Amino acid sequence: MAGEKVALVTAGGSGMGAAAARRLAADGFKVGVLSSSGKGEALGKELGGFGVTGSNQSNEDLKRLTDGALERWGRIDVLVNSAGHGPRAQIIEISDEDWHKGIDTYFLNAVRPTRLVTPVMQSQKSGVIINISTAWAFEPSAMFPTSAVARAGLAAYTKIFADTYAPDNIRMNNVLPGWIDSLPATEERRGSVPMKRYGTSEEIAATISFLASDGAAYITGQNIRVDGGITRAL
């Protein structure tokens, strides 16, 4: 098993998370996939790794994922934090409960597994954490209020984490997708993109692949927009 690299993907049963798992496996990583639907468990096995059926809002489920990787391969090189969908409503109509749900979905989804993998990566003196965020983290849209607010917080967290753990050769970056083909398509949304098309989950996965690679070894604390230019002037 010497020389094998290991990647974990949360919320990886479908969409961008699943595409990331497939791409990292193609890059030669052993993969572990977490999802609540059971699709991640099947995908992990399909890719020659393993999967866990559980939630990224559960510390216990996340520990099953990290423990599973350590038991099989003894290391964790890459963590990709994907997310589901949080509450949406007009801004002043969002209840306290739904704000908390949004923070669970879009912020703590990254914080929880990061706490688990960081000591492992410190012991290795290497590691990469990549959070799938949103193009609207800095220029928020009323369509996705809990996502925008929580992921603005994730950007701040990422900068603090990157500063703190850079001496241990642990990097953290955010990928900021725009309109991607895992979302429902509308002509209005397509027309708002300078490239006049939706992006693909595979294009997000390719960006994640680069950030996980040695070619990105000097990149940390960054927010990489992959949005067809929709936020270029914002």
From TrEMBL:
The organism's taxonomic lineage, starting at the top: Bacteria, Pseudomonadati, Pseudomonadota, Alphaproteobacteria, Hyphomicrobiales
Q: Which domain of life is it from?
A: Bacteria
What the entry lists under InterPro entries is as follows: NAD(P)-bd_dom_sf, SDR, SDR_fam
Task: Name the source organism.
Answer: Mesorhizobium montanum
Family in the record: Belongs to the short-chain dehydrogenases/reductases (SDR) family.
Q: What is this protein called?
A: SDR family oxidoreductase
